[in-house]
């Protein structure tokens, strides 16, 4: 196989880099950021991602960087259980539970498994074109580099995607999210657990990641592109979530202002084809999902592994890209769809009693089959 360039050193790009190094495929990663230091938030790495990490020999390092969770509880504002998920059973089945980890630590772990000479930082792609059987890439520092194939792993606002599929646009979910990170001691019952409280068009979730670092998110139904009208965002959030019991108020209060960040939640359901000739998109660049299933990063990891397997087996990148998409497309579509609708249902203003009744009484065989379809990876 020839020389490839990976644009983006996030979860997808670094996982692809580890897999390519192990498969003996020549590559370089170009990352726009001057250092690999993503926003200080947490991320849940689901069992499907952990199985891929296991195949790549990085699972233990990821586990060591975070906390393996034992349960997920979804409750109403008053902490009445709506749905509980026992992750010990999941771990027994898939070899790993969900790991809650600081994004920066995850990134550092993945980076530590790649030859650092192969990751060039502070190098933002501006445009790319195909010429004489090569891909020609133009960077912000005015350098031009050629490659035999390109993997666009440059995230939800992908420059690679904008170049090859300008007609594909993000969809706003109708919800905005504030994420916070705080050092705090949680009551024992919420250690090794994710707690998510569903209220009236509001949601609050939290989990410990490691060393008493708590990651929380607060989601509200809101118009797109809203801005915080107050500098005192903590008071605003405390007021919005005043009816929420448990550690919600104390977590918001204890979080420094600069550790709270607002993000509109989008997905990308529209891309029917993730590749064009010698250029292929993976992760959020191809198919961002809303975070409601905690699967965007996991799907990026699955993509990276599957794509590199196909590159390893195929004579041409074009063939590899095609069979990669055939293997991944249906699962990813299901995740985008499911995740979007969980967000809608979680924020229902009406019929909450009916929703909660069905969630409380979901037969275990239905839940198991849904989780299987998400957490099982194709070998
Ligand atoms: C609020 C929220 C919570 C989430 N929670 C979870 C969760 O719990 N579990 C989960 O699995 N997923 C979660 N996700 C989704 C997850 O964050 C993404 O799916 C994941 O980060 C995608 O990885 P990626 O590598 O494709 O993109 P990214 O992680 O965005 O990485 C893209 C990289 O490309 C670089 N880049 C961008 N443009 C250029 C350019 N022009 N040139 C060079 N480099 C460039 C960026 O700097 C970045 O490093 C969440 C998302 C949100 C918004």
Automatic annotation (TrEMBL):
Residues spanning the membrane: none
Residues forming coiled coils: none
Note whether S-adenosyl-L-methionine occurs among the keywords: no
Does this entry carry the keyword Oxidoreductase? yes
Q: Name one GO molecular function term.
A: monooxygenase activity
Protein name, UniProt field: FAD-dependent monooxygenase
Q: Look up the domain of life of the source.
A: Bacteria
Say which species the protein is native to: Paralabilibaculum antarcticum
All copies of the FAD-binding domain together span: 5-333
List, alphabetically, the Pfam families matched. Answer: FAD_binding_3 (PF01494)
**Keywords linked to the UniProt accession:** Monooxygenase, Oxidoreductase
